[in-house]
Design brief:
Blueprint (H helix, E strand, L loop, with lengths): L3 H37 L6 H5 L43 H8 L18 E3 L5 E3 L17 E2 L7 E11 L4 E4 L10 E5 L11 E6 L11 E2 L4 E5 L7 H16 L7 E5 L3 H6 L1 H7 L5 E2 L6 E9 L20 H11 L10 H4 L9 E6 L9 H10 L3 E6 H4 L5 H8 L3 E5 L15 E6 L4 H14 L3 E6 L7 H5 L4 H4 L1 H18 L8 H15 L1
Parallel strand pairs: 5-7, 8-12, 9-10, 9-12, 10-11, 13-14, 13-15, 15-16, 16-17
Antiparallel strand pairs: 1-2, 3-4, 4-5, 4-12, 6-7
Length: 528
């Protein structure tokens, strides 16, 4: 066998004769390139011209810019600049780039704007604004049948338009131009959210055109897909914000990895501001206020409505991507730059500190299902060895979440009476504990609303059902009243409306810390 030195010597000799032969060809090639450049005048452009746009492929990440205080895009000419991927924009950094690169939450702005830099645009022969150099969209194909809407699910309606879809915001209409032009001109009107039985959710009309119906002329063409959905409904309650909009939006949009545009009807500016960090990680494009949009936007793929599996739930067997509630929680935590999944809950992460105490966030509701003896409860928690962070319901409903989510992340457990504030468990670390105080008469709904979601997100759930003696309803109605003796009979005769009226709205809690003690010990065991 030869030595490494001999091998290098032979390689060098071979290189000499190859260089002798190839040199003349190199000279000829260089001369040809110089002649071509001199003839065409294609010299390197200046910094302004060369750095403004970067050619991209539709499948790749598109250059973006950071959010401004403009809020949602509307339709006048001054707001057209920087739009999605069909108008020119400043090539700055976007909020999701800042999150991924710095692992820090973006600064809170007065309103959310997902504006970004976009690929170079041009006008076609008809003056329609479109992307330059975009490749054909291949993430969906036109269906063999002309039916584009599915109204069969009891929770939500969904329409998916593959091929030539055109949105007309001011008339709340999405038109589908079939590639075969053999449609009978079907039309659907759906509530574009995840609770189709709420009559006040705004409807969007979806039309499948036939050969005799002219298609509206595109005023802008887009290479990315779009999702049209409605706000309103029961939002402004944090549980419904997540259950009705954010989880269904994750289910519907996550597969596009940010390369999707949102068109929102019945827009609520507070919502897009409060959840700007989550939204900017689901889309890197401008969010369009659909109701005020005067454009006819043409997309290769449009989804109208939001998919939903259940209350604050994701069922992997119903998701083509096998998404789970664990995926959703980790996505939200990553969006806010919270510690990685492998980082343990705070108490476990700092076991070497002998003075370290498990930390619990106590959520005290402001109006109903209040902890009447909250000060006594805090003392009891401290006696059991907890460090207590007490917050009121108003803080959990704040329009600014960035600081609050980090406060939740610093806790090992979250505790409160059955209510929306417990939804903030989504910001806990894996293995965190939810201590769920269940008022009298609502035991039947407790596990579905918070227990199952907590377990599905990789959290531990401790359920404590209060006794009638711990409810203020006892003083009001007495032991012999059906409200106290038989909550199931009240529910059977009056339905959920009666449950809401009596057990959810009239009831406060006087927690018996002695009776509650075993539940706290169970929570401590989970933390330890």
């Amino acid at each position: 066998m030869g030595s490494p030195k001999a091998a290098r010597s032979k390689a060098g000799q071979g290189g000499i004769w190859r260089r002798r032969i190839s040199a003349p060809f190199v000279v000829v090639l260089v001369a040809a390139v110089l002649v071509l450049v001199a003839f065409t005048g294609q010299f390197v452009q200046g910094p302004d011209a060369s750095s403004r746009f970067t050619p991209v492929h539709v499948e790749d990440s598109i250059p973006r810019r950071a959010p401004t205080d403009q809020g949602l895009e509307t339709s006048d000419s001054s707001r057209q600049e920087g739009e999605g991927s069909d108008q020119k924009a400043e090539p700055d950094e976007s909020p999701d780039e800042a999150i991924r690169e710095q692992q820090q939450p973006p600064e809170d702005t007065t309103e959310y704007s997902g504006k970004e830099s976009s690929p170079q645009v041009q006008e076609d022969e008809e003056g329609i604004v479109k992307e330059a150099g975009s490749t054909p969209y291949t993430k969906c194909t036109p269906p063999s049948s002309m039916t584009v809407c599915d109204l069969s699910n009891p929770r939500f309606d969904i329409c998916e338009l593959c091929g030539d879809a055109r949105t007309i915001g001011q008339s709340s209409t999405v038109m589908y131009v079939p590639h075969t032009q053999t449609s009978d001109g079907e039309e659907w009107s759906i509530r574009a959210q995840s609770r189709k039985n709420l009559p006040w959710i705004k409807k969007v009309t979806v039309k499948s055109l036939n050969t005799s119906q002219p298609a509206p002329r595109c005023t802008s063409k887009h290479a990315m897909p779009a999702i049209v959905f409605a706000l309103g409904g029961l939002t402004a309650n944090v549980w419904h914000d997540f259950s009705d909009v954010l989880v269904p939006l994750f289910l519907t949009a996550r597969e596009f990895d940010g390369d999707v545009q949102f068109l929102i009807t019945n827009n609520q500016p507070w919502f897009t501001k409060k959840y700007s960090t989550i939204l900017s990680n689901l889309t890197r494009h401008t969010i369009i206020d659909f109701d005020s949009d005067d454009q006819v936007r043409c997309y290769p793929h449009v989804i109208v409505g939001l998919r939903s599996h259940g209350d604050l739930g994701i069922y992997p067997n119903l998701s083509p991507q096998n998404y789970t509630m664990m995926d959703f929680r980790l996505f939200v935590r990553a969006a806010y730059g919270l510690p990685a999944p492998e980082v343990g809950i705070p108490y476990r992460a700092d076991r070497d500190d002998p003075d370290k105490k498990p930390r619990v966030m106590l959520i005290d509701r402001g109006k109903t299902r209040r902890l009447v003896n909250a000060a006594y409860v805090v003392q009891g928690l401290e006696w059991f060895g907890f460090e207590v962070v007490k917050v009121d319901q108003n803080k959990t409903d704040s329009t600014s979440l960035d600081d609050f989510v980090h406060l939740v992340d610093s806790c090992d457990a979250i505790m409160g009476a059955h209510g929306a504030g417990l939804t903030n468990m989504v910001f806990l670390r894996s293995g965190g504990v939810v201590v769920h105080v269940v008022p009298h008469g609502v035991e039947f709904m407790a596990d579905a609303f918070y227990g199952t979601p907590a377990r599905d997100m990789g959290l531990r759930h401790v359920n404590y059902s209060i006794s009638p003696e711990e409810s203020t309803l006892l003083e009001k109605y007495g032991w012999n009243h059906t409200v106290i003796k038989d909550p199931e009979a009240v529910r059977s005769s009056g339905g959920l409306e009666k449950v809401g009226e009596v057990y959810m709205s009239e009831q406060d809690i006087v927690l018996n810390m002695t009776r509650f003690g075993p539940s706290l010990l169970k929570a401590i065991d989970f933390i330890m």
